[in-house]
TrEMBL record:
Region Disordered: start-end pairs: 244-268
Ranges of compositional bias, category Basic and acidic residues: 251-261
Name under which the protein is recorded: Secreted protein
Species this protein is from: Embleya hyalina
Length: 268
């Protein structure tokens, strides 16, 4: 799901599972080795050439192997013919899922489309790492706090430290201090969440915490990928997260049942 507000609520059908939606279709295009090429065809069958920028880019491209390894978040170049190209060496054999986040100018509505591409060779699947609250990347330690539950909104924070010292000078990356992509193990249902606040708003601190509000669509295992920028370099911290059933809501004290009362309530 592409989220351009602070909250990420799971729809009935999670994003990223469809190659075509609302008349728009993601079409892979043959390209030289080491280059990924594709286009977005519109309702008229022609390639879309005009987009509304979302977080500083016309299109966000996410690529990950179906065993949830080899995550990439990149930004391809749009040609005059409506074909997007991106240098992308996929050295490991396997099936990869390609996600495109974009908003066509004709509607201005964000869409996420996904398609599989295949790389021939000796496929050796990578086991999913065990769930953990911390992730290490290039000398940085990122700590995840919060308990996401299926179908229930949750606040989570990701705190960045370097050599044990909290990082308080995170740098803006695509108009935010962090970008969180969540993928469900099994079908790679997709969620893309942006944090609350914005760099330079006079309120949002530049770390160490990056706060998100998100909702996972079902019970299951997920991979969280956090992109953050520091020292001029974008790094990705990866987590495995188990989402269980939501905790029961607190109930008011029991009282005698009224046989004439109807059922008035709501689902949280």
């Amino acid at each position: 799901m592409t989220v351009h507000a602070h909250h990420a609520a799971a729809p009935a059908t999670p994003e990223g599972l469809q190659v075509s939606r609302d008349g728009y279709t993601l079409v892979p295009v043959a390209a030289p080795a080491g280059t990924l090429a594709f286009r977005i065809d519109g309702p008229d069958g022609a390639p879309v050439r005009e987009y509304v920028p979302q977080h500083d880019k016309d299109l966000h491209l996410i690529v990950v192997r179906r065993d949830l390894s080899g995550f990439r978040h990149v930004h391809p170049v749009l040609g005059e013919d409506g074909v997007w190209t991106q240098d992308l060496a996929l050295d490991e054999a396997g099936t990869y899922r390609v996600f495109t986040d974009f908003a066509p100018a004709a509607t201005g509505s964000p869409l996420t489309l996904g398609v599989d591409i295949h790389v021939a060779g000796d496929f050796r699947p990578v086991p999913l790492p065990a769930p953990a609250a911390t992730a290490e990347v290039d000398g940085y330690t990122v700590t995840l706090a919060g308990e996401p539950a299926a179908g229930q909104g949750a606040h989570i924070t990701l705190s960045v430290a370097r050599d044990g010292v909290p990082v308080t000078d995170l740098e803006p990356y695509l108009a935010a201090f962090g970008h969180l992509v969540v993928l469900r193990d099994g079908d790679l249902a997709y969620l893309h969440v942006h944090p609350g606040g914005a760099p330079g708003d006079g309120v949002t601190p530049a770390g160490p915490e990056i706060a998100f509000h998100t909702e996972l669509p079902s019970v299951g295992t997920y991979r969280f990928f956090l992109d953050f920028r520091h020292g001029g370099v974008v790094r990705t911290a990866e987590f495995t997260v188990e989402a269980g059933k939501p905790a029961p809501h607190a109930h008011a004290p029991e009282r005698a049942a009224d046989p004439h009362a109807g059922h008035h309530g709501h689902h949280g």
